Amino acid sequence: MRNNGWLAISISTALSWLMKFIMIGMFPYVIYKGSYLFGFATGVAIILSLLPSIVERNYRITLPFELDLLITLMIFLHTFFGEWLKFYDRLWVWDKMLHIYGTAVISMLAFMIVYTLHYTKKLRLTLPFVGLFTIISAMAVGGFWEIGEFAVDKIFNKDTQNGLDNTMWDLIDDLIGGTLIASVGIIYIKYSRPDERKRLTRPLGEVFGIKKKIERIKVRLAHK
C-alpha cells in the first residue's frame, strides 16, 4: 500500500516538493551567515510555497493547471536562483523574465476566478471583460509588489527597486504577462469544447470541499 502511494505521486508534485525542501534547507544556513533580512524573505517564501499544498490538503480543493508547481517554481526561481545564486546581479534579463512569469501565474489564477463566477452565473461578463479583469488583477498585484519593494528600501535602506526606470519596466512586464494570459484564456474559452471549459470551474466550484467532506464522513460511518 505504501509503495502504491509513492507511485501515485505525480512528477509535478515531486518537483514541487523538491524545490520546497531545497528552500527549507537554505533557511538555517542563511540565518547562520547572519543574513537576517534574506532569512526572513526565505521564511516567507517557504510559507507561500506551502500554501497551495495546505489549501488542497485541508480544504480538498484540487488546483488546476498544476498551479502548485507553477507557484512554487516562481518562488524558487526568485529565492534560490535570484537571491541565493545572485542571478539578479549576474543576468539583467532575469528580473524581467521572472516578472513576466510571476505575473502570468497570478493572471492565470485571476482568470480562473472571474471565469468561474461567470460560468456559475454569479457574475455576468462578456469575454472581453473577463480578459480586462485578468489584466487589471495582474497590474494591481504588480503595483502592490512595487509598493512592497519601496517599503523594504525605505525601512532597511536597500535598493531593490533600482530606480524609477526599473519600476516602470516592471509594471510594463506585468501588463505584458496579464495581457498574454488574458488573450490565451479568451481563445481557450472561445474555441474549446464545453466539457473542457468546465474544468476551469471545478476547483472553485468545490470551495472548502463540502461535498467531498460529507462523502468522507459517510464512508467512515459506514465502516464503523
List the helices and strands and how they pair.
Elements: H1 2-7, H2 11-32, H3 36-59, H4 67-84, H5 87-90, H6 92-119, H7 127-156, H8 163-191, H9 194-205, H10 210-222
Helix pairs in contact: 2-3, 2-4, 3-4, 4-6, 6-7, 6-8, 6-9, 7-8
Q: How many individual β-strands?
A: 0
Beta-strand percentage?
under 5%
Radius of gyration over C-alpha positions, nearest whole angstrom = 20 Å
Q: What's the domain count?
A: 2
Helical content band:
over 70%
The mean pLDDT is 76
- Residue ranges: pLDDT <50 for 5 or more in a row? 1-7, 203-210
Please, how many helices?
10
User: What is the general shape?
Assistant: globular
Main beta sheet, described? none
Reading the helices and strands in chain order gives: HHHHHHHHHH
Question: What characteristics describe this protein?
Answer:
2 domains; mainly alpha; 224 residues; 10 helices; 83% helix; disordered N terminus; globular; single chain
Report on this structure.
By secondary structure, the protein is mainly α. The protein has 2 domains: 1-72, no CATH class; 91-224, no CATH class. It is built from 10 helices and no strands. The protein has helices spanning 2-7, 11-32, 36-59, 67-84, 87-90, 92-119, 127-156, 163-191, 194-205, 210-222. Helix 2 packs antiparallel against helix 3 (36-59), helix 6 crosses helix 9 (194-205) and helix 7 packs antiparallel against helix 8 (163-191). It starts with a helix and ends with a helix. Residues 1-7 and 203-210 have low confidence and may be disordered.
